[in-house]
Structure formats: structure tokens, C-alpha cells
Amino acid sequence: MKNIEYEFNNNERLFWKVFKDKFLFNYIFNQMITTEIIYKDEKKYYVGNRIQWKYIKSIEWMIANNQITLFKDKLKSNQYIIVDYFSLEIFIKECKDIELMKLLIDKRGDDLPIESLVSLSLNLGNIVACSAFIDLNLPFARSSFTSAISIGNLQIFKKLLTKLSPQDFDNPSKYPKHEIFQLIDSNNEIMEFILLDENLYSKNHQHDNDKTQLVSIQNYFLFKKEISKKLLKLNLVNKKMNNEENNNNINSNNDNNNNNNNNDLSIHHLILRIIKNEPLEIEQDELLFLIESYYLVCLNLQEIPIQILDRIEKIKLLDTSRDNELTKRYHLEMILVEQLQDKHKFSEHVYKLLYKTNNLSGIRNMSSLYHYSYKSLCMDGLCLLMSYYKDFQCISPDQLTIRDCKVESCDKSLIDTDPDRVVAFLQLYYAKNNNIRYLPELDKEFIAKVFVNCSIEILETILTTNSQFNEIFGNLHLGEQYTIPFSKYSWFIKRYCQCVNEPNLSFFNCNIEFKSIQEKKDFIDILSIYQTQSLNLPFNSIDCLGSIETCDYYTFKIPWNIIPDIYKFAFNYSLSICDIIELNKLQSIKTKSTTIETDFKDYQIEFKSFNINSSTSLILSLFKFINLNESFYQNHLFQLINKFEDLIKSEEKEKTIKSLVNVIDFNKFQFSTIKLLLNKIIEFDLLWIQLIFESGFKVQDYNLINQVGIKPPNVQLFNVLDNQPLGLYQCKTSNYQTLLEIIKLLNSNIPNEHIHRFQDFQYYLYLNLLSCNGVTINYLKYQVLKVYPINQDSQLFYLNLVIYYLRIKSTKLFKYIIENEKLINYICNNGNGLFLLKSSFFSFNQICNSNFQQLFFEFKNNILENKENIKLVNNNNNNNNNNNNNNNNNNNNNNNNNNYNYLQTIYNINYLLSVGEIDIILENKNEFIINNCINEHSMMASSNNAKLNSINSSINSLISKINEKLMINTPVEKIKEFNENIIVDYDGKDIFKSALNYERLDVVQWLMTVNSFWIEKLWHRMVFGNHLEISKFIYKNYSNEFTIDQLSLNEILNFGYQNMFDLIIKSSKNISPTIQKLKNQLDEKDEIIKNLNLQLSLLKKRKFDDLIDDKSGFNNKK
Questions:
Q1: 104, 136 in Cβ contact below 8 A?
Q2: In-domain check, residue 1088
Q3: By percentage, how much of the chain surpasses pLDDT 70?
Q4: Which residues, by range, are in coiled-coil regions (predicted)?
């Protein structure tokens, strides 16, 4: 313990000793600023990826990068940060730190639009910020109430109410009393709270046209019934639908038709409330409420009809036993059903009610009745449908088909327990006078499901009861969605063939369940009877022909020339269950032309995986059998190993694979083993590759490498010949040592005279190795290249290596290459780019021994700005030029030369700035001066004003972007040197704008020593951007350069920038008349209409009477 304490104290002394040493302190912090960080990802190089804290003045940046502590520190130490409306919005949206909010209000409250903070935080969804702002007693507008209600936050709503005086509730500018119901939507909690206090809502809605103060029909049905009943009692429901709510076209002038159309929307919402519940599960109170709502709200009656009230009273008088409670619900629900059942949305509910009660009285809804009758095999329902058909003469398919409720099948429990009911229903259904069955398309599906679910005994009864039933077999289709036992299938076929002259078995394309081999043979007998030779039906499954016995029987009963195709089913099935006995029999089968072994040589195994019940030991026994029969399974081993691997659990993988390797002699299976080896190389599977070579495997015929047809994926980074886009290949593994071990295994096990046959795979491994994270130039130099010396004969492969080497050497330089990809592609395809990249300078050793600056200039000067390459690019530009005038060819050439030079120079500058290499630009000024290029370029276009303007606009835009980048974290001395030496004729106004954007006071101070003529033009940008620090400097030293008018002063008040406002009126001369006019204008406004107008509150708060002379007359009034 004493040692730890001593060590701590010692470290403490050392820290303060270094910290107090001025030289060491400055040296350490300078190293932090200047030491280069090497990023592994080229995308991380951009302007601003490293920035000193003193340059961080953006709220947006600090919030986005979660620098809350830095933000607090800057506020506490009164460091300058930019506060404007945009940054404030981001702050409120993201920040949940109440301490930070209070700190910002305390330190920079005079620069915030205080009035909007409460509403803004609500609209942005930050309830924490909103609550904090209310607690801080910040002023708020009426829109804060609407925002709180819109998001449904009662606590915030209550908090806002506590800040109002009793008089404020009747003031529309303070509280939206007359709009409250329109705002609440369907929030039960807020509505319940508001109805407790009459001051919170308006009851002044006597005029029919005034609907804004009433609750809409939709919301009425969305509230809890207690709230809705209270609203109805207080007459606060808008029973008359607004025109914009009525989506129905009223085509008749008849009053009844109009009323019906006007009721549609309210009935629609009533139905939506009902169908949220299952039939007979709606509580009695809820049903009474819904009945009341139907008559008083939907129909807009003054009271419920007497006959309905009498029915309700009789229902209430029933006993309170459980059964009677259900009966009460049923009768109450039937009151609604009688009125609403013809509505489409209500059909499913009526159908469910029918099915629960089995009571048809009062039901006239066709869709519900149809589906209920069919599903429950209800005779009464079918009779009722038939009677309706006679009454209405016609029932269209639309009337008898319901989209919301489809009967999947008849109730199977009825079929099993009440066969007489099935027979009786079908007898009536197929009666001659029942034309209803010819209408809906669902009937065919219904009948098929009845027959699939019925037992053979019931089916026999049905068919013998009425001869007319036989006609159903002519149209009966049993598709793949049905699965039936073979016994029933056999019965179907027999009956079907008795009814149809030319039977078509494709009508019975269902799945069949077989219980025994004999059933499968019986099935084959059926096929032989009808001479079916197609194997495209469901019976071509492994389950049917999955054994040699059934295959033999099939070939006996149905002679067929292509016999091996039949036995493939048995072959697949036997392999999947590791049935060695059956596989052994298969090998002895003879075909008409040759042995089955020859036919199966190229056969693809089709089963997805070994049977799940097959244990690992059983599968290994299968491989032992295969090992003894290599000629038969020569081409199948690779497929079987892959299927076996799918079953191996990851924790058992190595042990299980070793067991498999021990039972296989890979030398017997040359084709499959080579295929397996190449596949594992592509997958970087070191374990398999080691085990294959350790087993003693030797390639006996190297021509098989090409015959297996496996090639490595195309991983070329920069495929010049095919114009592939430039980009990094993402390696499948991050373990580059694994890839090196695989390369070593290939080199040590493949003879030198044959290693070239694996060249593509070696390239593949090597390029993947180069793309792994963590690979360094030294690792390549001292470890990889000693094991695998690269064959540089392939210039395309070598080009890939150059690109990878440059990337490994410097990700900064790789960024340069990627961003010039199109240009490099064109030069390499059409010029001497490939030749230059193969020069000695781009050899591995040269790249290894060069620094970034050397590589950059070599690539820039010898590839991108090589004279021959520039000429090549310019000629291409000329060829693409639409102006084919021969007289202008020379001018075009010059224009393109200058255009290329200028744009490439600008790009190079932007690139070096993005990677933090401004010193390279300043140390090599002659390489980057763009003014000469600009001047020459402009001279060539001097005769064309439009072209000259376009050039100048482009130039100004590009230079502006450069200045923006310089402002982020470049010291002012280097900005000055850059503009004076690189741009030369720099635009101070443009630099001033960029300096404002990044609050660079040091840059502004330098610019003001050069010239101050642009200040007046940029005054608005400086003031309305709330650049307070720069404004203080400008007003202190250059206040005579501009004046302030009343309009501008008024705009500053609107923004809420109080400190900026103070600065202007204190620093500006002759400001008193402007303030007088502004105050007179504000005093004339009605304070109620202004809605907590920020301008007046500011004027009162700042007490402008004290800021000006008494002569101005500011000692009066308010």
C-alpha cells in the first residue's frame, strides 16, 4: 500500500514538474498539433479530421461529436461559440443535459430567441428541454399549447397552464381556447383533464356553421365511452359532417339520399369501434353507448326511438346469470346488427356472430350468411340463401364474396361427428332448383375441401344417395395444396374413372402419403394402367421411388428407355439416409446400353442435406464405403463432403474433419480432391488444405486443374483493360498470416515445374493478403516476398501490385489515386500509363524507400501531368467537342491544355489540403501557382463573353471552396502565405466570408490591415449571422465604415440577438433618431395581437431610456 502511495506521489510530482516547465509544456502541445496520424482508411483524410479545440466554436459540431464536456467548459470559461437559430435547433433536438441547457441560457441567453425555445423543443420532441425551459420561467407563445396537445403530453400542458393568469384563459393570444377540441385529436388523458375545468374549453358554439369549437365524429368514437358520453351531454360533438370530410359523391337532390350520405362517415367510425372487439365480448355498457351513439350522433336524432328503448328495457330485465348476460349482449348487439349489417366493413363481425350463436333470425347480410352456411354446413342458412335468391332474382358474385372474411374450409369436426349433416347439406346443395351454386368461384374450392376431409365411407354414402353427385368428379381438381393418404387417392381415382370417359390424372396433382412399399407399388399400378410416363407430377418424389424395389417395379410395369433417371431417386434417397445396402445393390444394376455407373458419372446429387437422424458415425461409414468404390463415386465425393460439413458444429469441426480425412484415400479421387482443394483455397480454409496435403495427396494429372472449372474470384483492384472502377477489395479474412501459410503449403507441395498451374490462385491469395488490415511494407519485404517472389510477367497483375503497394505505403497517396481513377484509367488504356507504372521508380524497393512527398510528385508529374498524357487527354476532349470547325482547332487545343492544367492544379491543392499537407504546397510554390493558368485560360476565352463569365464563375467557386478548407484549422500565417503566393490575386471579400463562417477573428484582423472596403457589403452577413466576436472588433475599429437603419435594427430584434443589438446601439453614432422611430412603431402595436411580441419585451428589458439622451424624448409612457 505504501509503495502504491509513493508511486502515486512521485508521478504527481513529475507531472507538475513537466507542466510548470514552459519549454516542455509548449513542446508537448506543439507535438500534439504537428505529429502526423496515419489512418488505415483513406476516407478518414479530409479537412477538419484534426482540429484544435480553440478553433471549435460550432454548437453543431460539439453536439454531433458528443463533446458535451467541451461545450460546458467553453460556456463556463466564457469562450466564444457561434449561437444562431440553426445551431440552436440542433442543440435542442439532441441535448438531454439539463445542466448544459441552464448554462447556455445563463451564459448566452441574450443571444437566443427566447420566445421560441419552449415551442421549438416541443416540436423537436425534446420534452426534457421543454420542461427545463418552462421551469426557468422563459416566456412562451400560445403555439406552445398547441404543440403540447399535438404530441399528447399532459404534463407539459399542465406546466404551461400554471404560467397563465386567470385573465389569460380568455385571451386568444395567450391560450387557444376556441380551437382546443380540434387540437386534442383522440388523446383520452388530455380530454379528460380539460373537461374537468370549463375555463379550458369554449362553450360558445351556438351557430351551426361554427364547427371549430366542437369534437369531430372521428375523435368522438376514439375517446373512452365516459369521455364521449360527457361530450355528448355537453353538446360538444359536431354531428354534422364538414364538406371536406365527405368523400362520397352525392348524385341525388333527394333529402333522404343526402342524409344517408352525410351519415356514412359517422357510421364508418361507429363500425370501426365495434369490430375492434369479437362478437359477444363487448361489455353491456359499451353496447348501450354504441346504440345511443348510433341514433343520437350518426343519425343526429334528438332521442332514441321509443321501440328501441322498450327493447333495451326488456333486455335489461333478464336475470343476471352468466348465460343471461351473454343473451343480453346478443340482443343488444342484434339491435346494431339489424341497422348496420348491410355495411361491408361489418360483414365479418356478423359472420362471427352467426358462428358463435347459430341463430339466423334477423340476418340478411349475404356475404356473412353465405360463408357461415358453407363453413358450418348449415341447412337453414342454405335454404335462406336460396329464398333470398328467389326474392332478389339474382345474386352477383360480389354479393356472395367477402374480401374481409374467407372461409378456408368447412368445419372438419362436423364432418367427423355428423356425417348425416354433410350428406343432407350436399343433397340440398346439388338440388336442381339450387342455381346459387353456379355463381361464386369459391364453391369449387369449398367442394374440394369437403371431399378431402370426408372419410371414404361418407363419400360413398354421398355418391350413392344421389346420382347427380357423380358430376362433381368431372370438375373436381385436387392441387398440390392438398395432402391425402394413398387409400383415399386410390378411391378418388377409381371413382373418377367411373365418371369420366377420358381420365386425366393431372386433375389429381395432390401430395400422397404412403404407409408401405406395397402402397407405392399400387400407385405405380395406377400409373401403368393409364400409361403415364411423365415424372413432372408430385409422385416423382424420393418418397415414392426412393428404393430399388419400387424402381425395379416401376421399370417392370412401365417400360422406359431412360431407366437410369428412375434409379436416381433411389440413389439420392439412399445417400441421404446412408443406406449402404441399397447403394451396394445400385452398383450392380444394368441398363440397356451400359452400366449404371457410367450413367451416374456426371449426375448432380440433389438432396439438400443428410437425413437429420443420420449420426456422424453413420455418415463416416458411408464415406468408408465410398472409399472402397471409388470408380462409382469418383465425381461425387466433393458434393458429399460439402453436405457433410453443413452438419458439423463449429466446436467439433476440426476433430470431425480429421475423422473424415482418415477414412478417405484422396489419391483415389483425383478429380473431386482437386476440386475440393481449389475450393478450400478460395475459402482460405487452412485446416482442410493442411489435412489434404498431410494425407499424402499428390496431383497425378495436372490437366485436371483446368478441367474442374474452378477459378478464383476477380479481386483485381484496378482492371485497366476492362475499365473496372477503382476501389479496395474487401478480404474475407483479416488474418494475413493464414494466407501466407496457404501460399507456403502450395509452394512446398507442388513441384516447381507445375506451380505455374496454380498461378491464378497464388495471385488471388497474394492480393487478398495485401488487402488485409495490418500488412506493412516491412512485413512484405522481410517475410512475404522471401516466401513468394512475384512473377512480374503479367503487367496487369503488376499494375494491381503497384496500386496495393502504394496503398500499404501511404493511405494518403491511395486517396489521390482513387480520386483520379477515371483519368488514370483513360491514360493506362490509351497511353503509356502502364509503361510508366512499370518504371523503376514504381518498383517495390523504390516505393519502400520513398516518402510521401516523393511518391506524390512522381505520380503527379510522371503519370497525371506527363506531357504525352496531357496531350492524349486534350485530344480526347477535342474529339468529344461538338464544334467541328477546323479553323478553331488550334484555339480548342490551347483552351483544353489550359483547362486541364488549371483544373488539375486546383484539384491537387484541394487534395493536399484534405490530407493536411499544406506545407508541401508552400514549399513548392512554383508547382501550384494557378494565376498564370487562369490568366491564359481567360485570354483564350476573351472573345466569348459567355464563356469568360462561365470560366470566372467556376474559378471563383473553386477558390471559395479552398478558402473554406483553409479556415477550419490552418494558422493565419499560412493562410496569408497561401493567398499571397499561390492565388496571388486573391479576393479579400471571399476570404472575409469564409472567415465569418468559421469565426476566424485572426484572419479578419489580417484582412483589415490589407483593405477594409468590403466591410459595408458584408455587414449584414456579419450581424445577422450573430458573429459577435468579429462584430466587436469591427465596431471598435471601423464603426465609421457603415450606418444602421430602422429596418435592420428591427430585424435584429426579431432574431432575438440581444447582445448584438446592444453592441450596435452602443457603438453606432447618431443612433438615437433610429431608436426613437423604432420605439414609436412598436408602441403603436396592440400587445394582445402581438402575442408576447419579442420586440416589446426586449425594449422594456433593455430600458432604452437609459441608453440615449433625455432630448430624444424617451422618458414617457410605458
A1: no
A2: no
A3: 74
A4: 1075-1102
